[in-house]
């Protein structure tokens, strides 16, 4: 059998996600381990073709990582016209995605893309339909469910630990510096609605698949959004108006297997962290509860639940946190982005099932769109099931 080379056009690899998580931690990491073992004697060898606007930056990247200097391009259409390129990957700014994906699908490339897949549900669905019609394979990054903490949570759910799940509370966020006296740690377009920014557009697509895959389909959304920091300073030191939401307080109803579940998730770039991890989900069920973060997961069973009594006259004598038990790893967890890349490449090479596709991506865009509308109109909105 031997080795099969798969050439992947990677657009947006000079960015935060494109570089760190996708190029370095996924594709180059797969090469470092000798390629992706397909399990039948064949190994898939990913060959990145770097695409972008700034040739010098791409050349510098190629050189830094020992990649072929010829595999650097600034003309996307020329790369898409190259029949040796099988997959188009997109980690550009959100506003540039829809157009590039449409062109890549039309050129017959398989598609792997960051979320959100488009800025409107209509456009996201149209991309899914276009890919289905063209018969290409397609996948959307839905990395959070590959995180060790959430995989442990899934294991608890599969094992029936919770009994009936009643509610989910998620806290996500951290302080993103305004950019004046300390540099902002996120790109400035994130804070401009006209450039595809905003925390709802960024995070609701994640909450959609996390909630749907673990607990049940999201049936309604009620969101309140805020722009807590109205002016920020960009990469060039210029002050700009933050036109996008930097915090979203959302309530989601879910169709759980044993009845409705309520999920409440706060997302904010204007909050200081007093938690163990940057995202945490507390799940409460009739038989037990859990708190899952990026890596760890702690549980408290019904049988070991203390009985606190409200009495503000007495100091708290015990640490509530110490009454929880750590869930063991019991498995090796690879980087979540790399794990999902591996599954997508197997889908392309072997046709193995893969349900994190452009239609799944469209559901995330739909939830973001409805979340923003709910906030603007000040009311709860049903989330209709998207046509399959
Ligand atoms: N899966 C996740 O957890 C996750 C996390 C953060 C961001 N994202 C998504 O990844 C994408 C990239 O986000 P990022 O934080 O890496 O952004 P970034 O600003 O760091 O990178 C953006 C990339 O797009 C390129 N680009 C193309 N056209 C551009 C234009 N017109 N203006 C500016 N840059 C342009 C830039 O050169 C750069 O390579 C976004 O769609 C975002 O929603 C996903």
Structure description:
- There is one protein chain.
- This protein is α/β, with parallel strands linked by helices.
- It folds into two domains: 2-140 and 336-357, Rossmann fold, CATH 3.40.50; 144-333, Dihydrodipicolinate Reductase, domain 2 (2-Layer Sandwich), CATH 3.30.360.
- The chain is built from nine helices and 18 strands.
- The chain has helices at 16-32, 55-64, 76-80, 97-106, 121-134, 148-158, 199-214, 336-350, 358-377; strands spanning 2-11, 36-37, 42-51, 72-73, 85-90, 110-113, 138-140, 165-173, 217-226, 231-233, 239-241, 247-256, 259-268, 279-285, 288-292, 297-301, 325-326, 381-382.
- The strands form three sheets. A nine-stranded mixed β-sheet has the order 17-16-15-14-8-13-12-9-18.
- A hairpin with a 5-residue loop joins strand 10 and strand 11.
- It is globular.
- The model has no long low-confidence stretch (mean pLDDT 96).
- Bound molecules: nicotinamide-adenine-dinucleotide.
- Nicotinamide-adenine-dinucleotide is lined by residues 12, 14-18, 52-53, 91-94, 96, 114-115, 141, 143, 187, 202.
- Keywords: Oxidoreductase.
- This is Gfo/Idh/MocA family oxidoreductase.
- Pfam families: GFO_IDH_MocA, GFO_IDH_MocA_C3.
- Residues 151-290 form the GFO/IDH/MocA-like oxidoreductase domain.
In short:
Belongs to the Gfo/Idh/MocA family. The chain has 388 residues and is α/β, with parallel strands linked by helices.
């Amino acid at each position: 059998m031997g080795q099969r080379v798969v050439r992947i056009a990677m657009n947006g690899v000079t960015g935060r996600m494109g570089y760190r998580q996708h190029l370095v931690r996924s594709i180059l990491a797969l090469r470092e381990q000798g390629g992706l073992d397909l399990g039948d004697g064949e190994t898939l060898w990913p060959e990145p073709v770097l695409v972008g606007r700034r040739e010098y930056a791409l050349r510098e990247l190629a050189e830094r990582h020992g990649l072929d200097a010829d595999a650097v391009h600034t003309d996307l259409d020329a790369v898409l016209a190259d029949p040796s390129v099988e997959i188009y990957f997109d980690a550009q700014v959100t506003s540039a995605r829809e157009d590039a994906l449409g062109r890549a699908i039309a050129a017959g490339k398989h598609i792997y893309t960051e979320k959100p897949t488009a800025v409107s549900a209509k456009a996201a669905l149209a991309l899914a339909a276009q890919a289905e019609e063209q018969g290409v394979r397609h996948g959307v990054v839905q990395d959070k469910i590959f995180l060790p903490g959430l995989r442990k949570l899934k294991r608890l759910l599969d094992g029936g630990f919770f009994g009936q799940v009643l509610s989910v509370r998620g806290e996500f966020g951290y302080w993103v510096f305004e950019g004046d006296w300390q540099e902002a740690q996120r790109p400035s377009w994130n804070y401009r609605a006209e450039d595809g920014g905003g925390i709802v557009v960024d995070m609701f697509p994640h909450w959609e698949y996390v909630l749907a895959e673990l607990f049940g389909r999201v049936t309604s959304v009620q969101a309140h959004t805020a722009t807590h920091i109205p002016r920020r300073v960009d990469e060039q030191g210029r002050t700009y108006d933050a036109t996008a939401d930097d915090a979203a307080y959302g309530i989601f109803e879910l169709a759980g297997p044993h009845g409705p579940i309520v999920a409440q998730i706060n997302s904010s770039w204007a909050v200081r962290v007093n938690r163990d991890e940057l995202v945490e989900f507390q799940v409460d069920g009739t038989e037990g509860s859990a708190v899952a973060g990026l890596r760890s997961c702690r549980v408290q069973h019904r049988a070991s639940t203390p009985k606190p009594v409200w009495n503000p006259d007495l100091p708290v004598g015990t640490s509530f946190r110490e009454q929880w038990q750590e869930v063991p790893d019991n498995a090796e967890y690879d980087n979540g982005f790399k794990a999902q890349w591996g599954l997508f490449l197997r889908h392309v090479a072997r046709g193995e099932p893969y349900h994190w596709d452009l239609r799944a991506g469209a559901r995330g865009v739909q939830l973001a769109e409805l979340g923003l509308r709910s906030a603007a109109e000040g009311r709860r909105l049903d989330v209709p099931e998207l046509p399959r």
